[in-house]
């Protein structure tokens, strides 16, 4: 495999990984497309502004091992 082909494949892999992560997040919100997020500011929460009791209502982000 040439250096260029290897680099191209890594970029494809990166985009596919991002797509997989986005699909999982959309499923958690009961959505099927990114367009459904438009205007949905009700899905945004700034946890730093909440007290500890309110913050517990929200699930933490999934922790995934980063592989580089």
In short:
It contains 2 helices and no strands. It is mostly helical and 68 residues long. The protein has one domain (3-55).
Describe it.
The protein has 68 residues and is mainly α. It has one domain (3-55). 44% of the residues lie in helices and 0% in strands. It has 2 helices and no strands. The protein has helices spanning 3-28, 52-55. The longest helix has 26 residues, at 3-28. The radius of gyration is 17 Å and the shape is elongated. The mean pLDDT is 85.
What is the topological layout?
Elements: H1 3-28, H2 52-55
Order of helices and strands: HH
Give the number of DSSP strands. 0
Approximately how much beta-strand content do the residues carry? under 5%
Could you give the distance between the termini? 19 Å
Helical fraction equals: 40-55%
Secondary-structure-based class equals mainly alpha
Question: What is the averaged pLDDT score?
Answer: 85
- Rounded Rg: 17 Å
The best one-word shape is elongated
By DSSP (H or I, 4+ residues per run), the number of helices equals: 2
What's the structural domain tally?
1
Main β-sheet: number of strands, strand sense, barrel status?
Answer: none
The poorly predicted ranges are: none
